[in-house]
Design a protein that fits this description.
The structure is a homodimer of 256-residue chains.
Chain A lengths: L2 E7 L1 H4 L2 H13 L3 E6 L2 H10 L6 E2 L2 E2 L3 H25 L4 E4 L7 E5 L11 E6 L1 H9 L3 E4 L2 E3 L5 E3 L2 H12 L4 E8 L17 E2 L1 H9 L7 H13 L4 E6 L9 E3 L2
Parallel strand pairs in A: 1-2, 1-11, 2-8, 5-8, 11-13, 12-14
Antiparallel strand pairs in A: 3-4, 6-7, 9-10, 13-14
């Protein structure tokens, strides 16, 4: 099977001009088929604040009322996405900015209200691997913003890690997929205070043990859960690494 | 040749919920291959105002400094475009929101400063008919926002009428193209004060005569100039009509 690299980068790297320029260069240098999934939370918070809209986070997730949905639609689907696309085009990468609504590539439903009402937040139902693989076969490089749609005309704010994972899983039947989660640390750390204590590789049993021991905690837990789900669904390699190391040669490799 | 309908709608119709819903229904009902090109100026002005950014217009065109470029990227590429896409998907139209940067479909250069410095405004150089026709052949319906790129990483605010005209011209070699400019009047009017004084059809000689006589003036002049350019470039039909009559059965037909 042909190789496909899916890179997920967080908001921080795409919102600083210097780190964005580095990312664009690094991403352009990746050979073969590829997809970029990006965040943009900091810019959304900044715009919301400029508009006098308060940002509320619960468990690291943004509460998305209709005003905030307008903000994230503008920032994720417009500002961040289109700037990445224009810059990739300048490097000869045939980028196409997309949300889940575009070509219906990712559908979701509004998250049920249990303890918390997250508002217009989507839980993913389906990734349209057929549409995506047709684009990829045509040499197009999808650049995916963290928004999905419910198929009834509503956009929904959606976690970018989840979207990257769902994209990887759906395309695992078509390609030999490597999924790389980039963030601000060198990988999964054994000691949160030591940036160099990267765990080079981790399997699911070790993950559970380290979580119970409290070594792995916070936002790393859902990230690794997504990673293991992807591996179970046929994704070949999942790597968690620094946003300046998107070639996947460093960081933590997730194995079954 | 297969038929292709290109509809251009202004900001006003896409910014009101009721008229947008009507447009979505009408556009979904158009048979065959189609493209939607939209504006969004009023929403841009509204967001700019909320952000304390002053909107400056010269000859009906927006002065686009870097703050305003950020605004139009968010509003045109994000808010307006993605809402249209989600709503069209809900009607079973396989919409794909695009700017000129996406798949490099439209390149431009920053407008030269003569009497006025329009800032980050693009004059179109090239429309990528190959990429667009491949999408269209795959059943995709491009929804185009009024932004282009310069191929060097910069987005540029671009007139939506011009983009619709350039798209029509570029695709005239592939399709039997009908280009429909929708706006707030029933067509080209013989008497600006009488909404029912629609000129049913107009050729270039008549256009020049009526312009000299002052019957045709203001924003209608560049609209008709775009229309005649399109006709000269092989576009089969250009129609100027009401935004509630996008089937092209009313309005003014532009002929050679």
């Amino acid at each position: 099977m042909e190789k496909l690299t899916i890179i997920k980068v967080g908001g921080k790297i795409v919102e600083d001009d210097a780190s964005l320029a580095q990312l664009i260069n690094d991403f352009a240098a990746i050979e073969g088929r590829k997809i970029l999934v990006h965040g943009g939370g900091r810019s959304a918070t900044k715009l919301a604040s400029e508009l006098g809209i308060e940002t509320q986070m619960v468990n690291g997730r943004r509460i998305t009322d209709s005003d905030m949905l307008r903000v994230v639609t503008m920032v994720y689907g417009g500002l961040v996405n289109k700037n990445i696309v224009a810059k990739l085009q300048a490097c000869g990468v045939n980028a196409l900015g997309m949300t889940g609504a575009d070509m219906d590539i990712m559908r979701s439903h509004k998250r049920e209200v249990k303890d918390v009402d997250y508002g217009f937040v989507g839980d993913v139902d389906a990734c349209n691997d057929d549409m995506l693989s047709r684009l990829i076969e045509n040499g197009v490089v999808p650049v995916i913003a963290p928004l999905t749609h419910d198929g009834r005309g509503c956009l929904l704010n959606t976690n970018a890690d989840t979207m990257a994972g769902e994209t990887a899983k759906a395309l695992a039947t078509h390609y030999d997929v490597t999924l790389i989660y980039c963030f601000e640390k060198k990988g999964v750390l054994r000691n949160a205070d030591d940036d160099d204590s990267v765990i080079p590789s981790i399997n699911e049993a070790e993950f559970h043990r380290l979580t119970e021991e409290g070594v792995i905690q916070g936002g790393m837990i859902p990230k690794l859960e997504n990673a293991f789900q992807a591996i179970h669904a046929g994704v070949k390699r999942v790597i968690i690494t620094l946003a300046t190391a998107i070639d996947g040669k460093q960081g933590t490799v997730i194995t079954e």
